[in-house]
Specification:
Number of helices: 1
Order of helices and strands: HEEEEEEEEEEEEEEEEEEE
CATH topology of the largest domain: Immunoglobulin-like
Strand order of the largest sheet: 1-2-4-10-8
CATH superfamily of the largest domain: Immunoglobulins
Helix content: under 10%
Largest sheet: 5 strands, antiparallel
Distance between the termini: 58 Å
Number of domains: 2
Length: about 280
């Protein structure tokens, strides 16, 4: 592996461990985890790396997905009301790559047809699908009496949003419906709902702090990269809280902060408090 590729691979691993700005699925590492075109930005590079022990081929395609109210996704072919796809305004290269163990590749994305973009937000998803380059040991079943053999090959993939923003955002978010429930009598779960209004998607990091009756405050939980995509007006979210720090989830107060996490100076988006009883 050449030195530049090795450095890119190390960078991806470091981002996975430290910043949460990369994504991982199976043996596929990807940095960054979303692409945003806004202002004068017209070009972006993605770093794709194979952290596995086998050579793999990665096929890259565009897809459209709908975010459900519980944060899950489902593939769609037509935009919902108030939603615009970005696929016809972007192009990328290459469309497939073959990477050996610990090798990496840059994928280039470019914005096109700028003069056809009306104000608003456009979103599609790049789908990176990893296909093993050769059969893995133990995957091929012996032929049956009928002469038919079956080989099971796991396929891993990552999809990341590619978002185009034209114009000024007027999006606002409110956090509501805070509640704590204990699962299996020992695991504290914080339930919340994000209420989004405005013309564009929003994403950020969640930080939860616990303040005891005597005024002591400690961190109780975090979650990175929580998004509410257009045209959704609401997203329900469940966060597992810390159960090993002597926090009494029946008294005191929980404070939820939702802030951008793209740099070292996060900007607060929304917040809410819950009095515990």
């Amino acid at each position: 592996m050449t030195t530049p590729r090795y450095l890119i691979f190390l960078l991806l691993c470091l981002e996975i461990l430290c910043s949460g700005m990369a994504m991982a699925q199976g043996n596929l590492l990807l940095l960054p985890r979303r692409v945003i075109f806004e202002g004068s930005k017209r070009y972006e590079e993605l770093n794709l790396a194979n952290s596995g022990k086998d050579t793999a081929r990665y096929v890259i395609s565009l897809m459209h997905v709908r975010m459900k109210e519980d944060g899950g996704f489902e593939e769609i072919s037509q935009p919902d009301s108030g939603e615009n796809f970005a696929d016809r305004f972007i192009r990328f290269f290459p469309h497939s790559v073959v990477l050996g163990p610990d090798e990496s590749q840059v994928v280039k994305i470019q914005l096109t047809k700028i003069n056809e973009l009306a104000p608003g937000e456009y979103r599609s998803h790049l789908y990176f699908r990893a296909i093993p380059d050769k059969p893995l040991l133990g995957e091929e079943r012996p032929a049956t009496d009928s002469g038919i053999s079956i080989r099971l090959v796991p396929i891993f993939g990552i999809s990341i949003p590619v978002i185009i923003r034209v114009g000024t955002s007027n999006t606002q978010v409110r956090i509501s419906d805070l509640s704590v429930q204990m699962e299996e009598d020992t695991i504290p779960i914080l339930n919340m709902t994000f209420q989004r209004t405005g013309n564009m998607s929003i994403y950020g990091d969640i930080s939860v702090y616990y303040t005891s009756a005597d005024g002591k405050t400690i961190a109780a939980g975090t979650a990175k990269g929580i998004a509410v995509y257009t045209p959704n007006l609401a997203r329900r979210f469940r966060l597992t809280l810390d159960k090993n720090r002597g926090i009494n989830y029946h008294s005191g107060r929980l404070s939820v902060e939702y802030a951008t996490g793209e740099d070292s100076h996060p900007v607060r988006i929304a917040g809410a408090d819950l009095l515990l009883r």
